[in-house]
Amino acid sequence: MARATTPSRSPGRPRSSVDAAVFAATLSTVHELGYTRATVDRIAAEAGVAKTTIYRRWPSKGALITACLVDAFGPLPLKEGASRAEVMETAIRYGAARITEPGIAAAFAGVFTDAIGDPALREILSTQLQDPYRLVLQEALGESEQRVLFFVDVVIGTLLHRMGMTGEPMAAADVDALVTMIQRELT
Amino acid sequence: MARATTPSRSPGRPRSSVDAAVFAATLSTVHELGYTRATVDRIAAEAGVAKTTIYRRWPSKGALITACLVDAFGPLPLKEGASRAEVMETAIRYGAARITEPGIAAAFAGVFTDAIGDPALREILSTQLQDPYRLVLQEALGESEQRVLFFVDVVIGTLLHRMGMTGEPMAAADVDALVTMIQRELT
DNA sequence: GGATTTCGCTACTAGAAGTATCGATACCGA
DNA sequence: TCGGTATCGATACTTCTAGTAGCGAAATCC
After folding, report:
1. Model-level pTM?
2. Are the CB atoms for A21 and A47 separated by under 8 Å?
3. Nearest CA to B120 among A167, A36, A159, A107?
4. What is the distance between the alpha carbons of residues A16 and A147, in angstroms, rounded to a whole number?
């Protein structure tokens, strides 16, 4: 039971801090080449690490991209005391801004495709990426889980569909329309 | 200039009519294995044709899947004299029903992913799959191109996002909510 | 029957995911 | 200072898949 409260570092060479470099290289490469042609070899080269190092940290290309998305999205920046309409607008514009960033939409769509045929990856995607936002929004909006999931489907689905069809982010006027449409859904 | 008006068949062995079998095999295989693992070899085997026959008709896997989607969606069944709200409801429920069919959502998401990094495929997708619906809806709804494209993004994007996240089609109650929400958008 | 085109089949190339191995390296504790 | 341990980079490898090339056989028209 000794040192049970001392979380001393495990022995051996510590991991070098290259996660950020790998994430940046991943988004950059996916942005430039698309999900399919963004090979792990190229990502590793651009990050300046060996491919084996990547596979030591993430079990598959899909898992790497998902981790990259989780890192890129981060927590929802909600203001204190905001109205429900304001919360909704902030959330939508935050999502739109993230998806506009280079590589994010392509990475998202790619993981999506892999997830449909891979329940384990779908679980990661749902748990690590969607659930944090769902929980925060249920609390901030006072809406049911079903209702919040519906909003997420509409917002993220719409933004991704536009990126997939046109290759460009949704124009500001259409994002405004999305905000208005969904705000009307608040009871 | 002779026989300029006689579109007689070109000589040589005619193509055997296996398109329907190939489309069925494609959707079945994609439904079972997902887009990535649905290889052209397997699709050809399940359709009972040689892989080379498939590549004689469609230039790439993405083009095959897109053709498959175009075939599966077909024309929008609009009633004569329907109101704009009825047209919208019909279109949404028609899209939801098609995306529910086995393999359609997985195929759609896969083509989407490939399209983001492949402008030629994106062009095929936009022209052959989206434009027919867009034109019919612009006419039937009397809305602008921008507006109709926005509706398509919302409806198809939402339905696909739900399929991707859960692996299941959207429940009837949520489809109803989608119909109501978008009908409110009609001016 | 001859010309033409598609068919199935086999073999092939190119490229990517993921694995195995090994010497070198960085940190910890004694 | 030195041994233990875990990571690093590098290389080579296996497996799988998209897509191509070339062949003889079959189907249709004239």
Report:
1. 0.89
2. yes
3. A167
4. 43
Checking A39-47 for CB contacts under 8 A at 24+ apart, the result is A40/A64, A47/A18, A47/A21, A47/A22
Give the bases of strand D that a protein CB approaches within 7 Å.
Answer: 4-12, 16-22, 25-30
Instruction: Kindly give the confidence (pLDDT) of every residue in chain B, 187 residues in length, as a single tens digit, with 9 standing for 90 and above.
Output: 333 333 456 788 888 889 999 999 999 999 999 999 999 999 999 999 999 999 999 999 999 999 999 999 999 999 999 999 999 999 999 999 999 999 999 999 898 888 877 777 788 888 889 999 999 999 999 999 999 999 999 999 999 999 888 888 999 999 999 999 999 999 8
Query: What tokens were used for A181?
Result: 């449409």
Candidates B108, B113, B133, B166: best to mutate against A (most CBs of A within 10 A) is: B113
CA of A33 to nearest chain B CA: how many angstroms apart? 6
Alpha-carbon gap, residue A163 to A32, rounded angstroms:
15
Task: Please count the other Cβ atoms lying within 10 Å of the Cβ belonging to residue B168.
Answer: 10
d(C-alpha A150, C-alpha B177), whole Å: 9
Determine whether the interchain pair B181/A154 forms a contact, defined as Cβ–Cβ distance below 8 Å.
yes
